[in-house]
Design brief:
three-stranded mixed β-sheet, 604 residues, 3 strands, mainly alpha, 24 helices, globular
Length: 604
């Protein structure tokens, strides 16, 4: 029999302390694990719900949706008039987030948590303006957007082809939903001006051109055949399948899609005359409040409208004074503008992209690839002639987050850009612009295990602000090419200043028109002061800004926010500041609102 051993007070205290410490640690670990599990579950639920009812978005977000439990039948989302249920859903998400402590999350998830709180809170405030959006805008609406997305819908398998044809078959229902929305907007007195409705009607017949459809030469014919031929070459489909699908595509374009566009044209013909306002948003009942919401949601800036206006005005004065000074030093710039524009030594997009990648090496990090270097492919294509009138001067198609290898940049040759403009445009769309930023940030987030939810939180000010920020740098790269030619280098700088002055002015006009109620006559007076006197040009500028509120501030305020963030980083980091470090910080953080970026910077 073992003898009894007495436990001292000291030993008893030590045991009790260890038990309590272990218990506290156990509770802490449980809380951490619980909050982490809840946040990951909520993030995944939101990611799945946002994509499950929209096959187009899903296809452009994921190359292999089955890995994420997505990708059943093909669906084009239809308009649902019940806005209250959407607001209730956002409130429920915010309530669930309120039950999670960001202190119990990983640093990666905690940052996503902060983004999501701000994103959803802002979207909830926007639910009060259900009929202020414009999905059929003549400048950027789905009439031109849908064909572009369909034309580049990647075919990786037979299912992709079947899904594509299913989507074509739903275009009539899709546009019927948008017609219903526009009819309800009209009933609320919020329908677009007649001049804009007329453009929509014109688009319907121009985009779905009967002549090209009847001969099989429409770009939705040719691009479909090209993608099928690539699948056949890879041995993924047979000749018989290809011919069957070509016939089906022909049938759907003429019996479903073309009538769908005609239906939009007919409906807008009926709705013309019901618009109550031909000017900016502030002339609608809640227009100013909507503009404030839209401004914050689109730019990602937390600055007040008055603060933004002052920031823009100061920037305009600085750039204008710099341009006047430059022309004073190089008065021969003006008469030789056309001559200088033809002296650019690079002529092809491929040469320009290669040069841009070489110039950026000193200040931008290589792609974050753990195994060797990673260089995504980039194909530069020309916008179809039938779409030139309705497309931007250039655009980049974002690749799926799980396959960043293949990238496409479209150039619109309608206005025949000169060599310098093409060079800086490729910097904006390619390197170090959209392509580089998108691929870098997504690779970095993939490596960190960031929630895929980050991909569907859209931050226009970050995306376009970055592109304009690096576009400005590309003018310096162009000057470097002409370093032995002072006059040509000065022309590059004059072009940069002129570009910024124009975008800054249009951003100020955006505020003047939509927030302050500027009339066409007032805008004409402003433009005349800087030499824009052609009535057609003045009218086109005014109409575009009316149709596309906050588009210019998205670019230019985003650019100024990055400039301000760089200055903050320089002050914070002192001697340790470098452009390389700043760019790496922005790229690795990924798309965000600017308040979140500032908070993250202060902790770096």
């Amino acid at each position: 029999m073992f003898p009894k051993k007495r436990i001292s007070h000291r030993q008893l205290f030590l045991c009790t302390f260890l038990l309590l410490s272990f218990g506290a640690l156990f509770v802490s670990v449980c809380l951490l694990t619980s909050d982490s599990r809840q946040f990951k579950a909520l993030s995944r639920e939101l990611f799945v719900s946002e994509l499950s009812g929209d096959t187009l978005s899903l296809h452009y977000t994921l190359a292999d949706p089955e890995k994420y439990g997505l990708g059943s039948e093909a669906v084009l989302p239809c308009y649902q008039p019940d806005t209250e249920s959407n607001a209730a859903y956002i409130r429920s998400l915010l309530n669930r987030l309120a039950e999670i402590s960001p202190d119990h999350l990983t640093s990666e998830d905690a940052y996503t948590y902060g983004l999501l709180i701000r994103y959803l809170t802002l979207r909830l405030s926007g639910s009060d303006f259900a009929f202020y959006g414009e999905p059929l805008s003549p400048s950027s609406g789905m009439l031109s957007g849908l064909p572009v997305l369909l034309a580049d819908y990647t075919f990786r398998s037979e299912k992709d082809v079947e899904d594509y044809l299913d989507l074509l078959d739903q275009t009539d229902t899709y546009f019927e939903g948008l017609i219903q929305y526009e009819t309800e907007k009209s009933a609320q007195g919020l329908f677009m001006p007649d001049r804009s409705a007329g453009k929509v009607i014109e688009q319907c017949y121009s985009i779905m051109d009967k002549a090209s459809l009847s001969t099989g030469n429409h770009f939705l014919h040719t691009t479909f055949r090209e993608r099928l031929e690539a699948l056949e070459t890879e041995g993924l489909i047979t000749e018989t399948q290809k011919q069957h699908w070509i016939c089906e595509n022909d049938r759907l374009l003429t019996t479903v899609m073309e009538p769908a566009y005609e239906n939009v044209a007919d409906s807008f013909t009926v709705l013309m005359g019901s618009g109550k306002n031909n000017m900016g948003l502030c002339h609608f009942p809640e227009g100013r409040s909507y503009y404030e919401y839209l401004f914050a949601a689109t730019t990602g800036s937390s600055r007040s409208i008055s603060e933004v206006k002052q920031l823009l005005y100061q920037d305009f004065q600085q750039n204008y004074a710099a341009l006047i000074s430059l022309i004073g030093n190089y008065p021969e710039l003006i008469p030789k503008d056309d001559e200088l524009s033809s002296d650019f030594p690079l002529s092809t997009p491929e040469e320009m992209l290669t040069d841009l990648q070489e110039h950026m090496k000193a200040d931008f990090p290589a792609f974050p690839q753990s195994e060797g270097s990673f260089i995504p492919s980039c194909t530069v294509k020309r916008v179809s002639q039938s779409m030139e009138k309705y497309c931007s001067p250039a655009y980049y198609l974002t690749p799926p987050m799980d396959d960043m290898s293949h990238n496409i940049i479209y150039i619109n040759h309608r206005n025949q850009p000169d060599a310098l403009t093409l060079y800086t445009t490729l910097a904006h769309e390619g390197y170090p612009g959209h392509l580089y930023q998108t691929v870098y940030s997504q690779l970095a987030m993939n490596q960190r295990g960031a929630s895929p939810l980050r991909r569907i939180l859209h931050y226009g000010g970050y995306v376009e602000g970055w592109a304009l920020y690096v576009e400005n740098l590309s003018y310096y790269y162009a000057r470097d090419i002409h370093q032995d030619e002072p006059l040509t280098a000065a022309w590059c700088e004059a072009s940069r200043l002129n570009r910024n002055i124009q975008l800054c002015l249009y951003s100020l006009l955006d505020i003047a028109i939509h927030y302050e109620g500027a009339t066409p006559a007032q805008v004409q007076g402003i433009l005349e002061k800087i030499g824009i006197t052609n009535p057609a040009s003045v009218s086109a500028i005014y109409e575009y800004i009316v149709e596309e509120p906050v588009t210019y501030p998205k670019y230019y305020l985003g650019f100024l926010e990055f400039q301000a963030l760089k200055e903050e980083a320089a002050t914070l980091w002192g001697d340790e500041f470098s452009l390389m470090r700043f760019h790496r910080f922005v790229l690795e953080t990924g798309p965000s609102d600017f308040e979140s970026l500032r908070i993250r910077l202060s902790m770096s």
